[in-house]
Specification:
Layout: H1 8-14, H2 17-36, E1 53-54, H3 55-69, E2 87-88, H4 90-109, H5 111-134
Antiparallel strand pairs: 1-2
Helix pairs in contact: 2-4
C-alpha cells in the first residue's frame, strides 16, 4: 500500500466528508420526491413549485458565457454545482445552510487540537535550538 503525500486541502476536506455526503444524499432525496411528481430537467419554470429554479439551465448559460469570454482558462466548471442538484429551492438552501453550520462547527472544533500540536512542535524546535546554543 503506497503512502499518499500529505495535502492540507485533502485533510481539511476529509474531516467533513461524511457531512458533505449526508447533505448530498438529503438533497438528492428531496429532488427524487420532485421527480416522482413528474418534474425533470426539462420542466418549464412555470410548472415547477414556487421558488424552484433549474440550476442546470442557469449554469449552462453561465458556462457558455464564461467559455466564450475566456478561451485561455481551462478550468472545469461544474454544471450542476457541488452536490449535483438539478434545482435550487428554499428547501435546498435550508438543507445546505443546516449542513454548513455543522461543517463549520466541526472544523472549528479542530482549532484547539491544531494549536496544541503547533505549540508542541514549537516547543521541541525551541528545545533543540537551545541545545545547539549550549553545545
Amino acid at each position: 500500500m503506497g503512502c499518499k503525500s500529505f495535502s492540507f486541502k485533502w485533510w481539511w476536506y476529509g474531516q467533513v466528508e461524511d457531512l458533505h455526503n449526508a447533505c448530498a444524499k438529503e438533497l438528492h432525496e428531496l429532488e427524487e420526491k420532485e421527480k416522482k411528481k413528474g418534474h425533470d430537467l426539462y420542466t418549464q419554470k412555470e410548472n415547477l413549485p414556487h421558488g424552484w429554479v433549474s440550476v442546470a439551465y442557469n449554469s449552462l448559460t453561465e458556462y457558455s458565457e464564461a467559455s466564450l469570454e475566456s478561451k485561455k482558462k481551462k478550468k472545469k466548471q461544474s454544471i450542476l454545482g457541488p452536490y449535483n442538484c438539478l434545482w435550487e429551492s428554499p428547501e435546498h438552501v435550508a438543507i445546505r445552510c443546516r449542513y454548513n453550520g455543522k461543517i463549520f462547527q466541526r472544523r472549528f472544533s479542530y482549532i484547539p487540537q491544531i494549536v496544541g500540536v503547533l505549540g508542541g512542535i514549537l516547543g521541541i524546535v525551541s528545545f533543540i535550538l537551545q541545545l545547539i546554543n549550549i553545545i
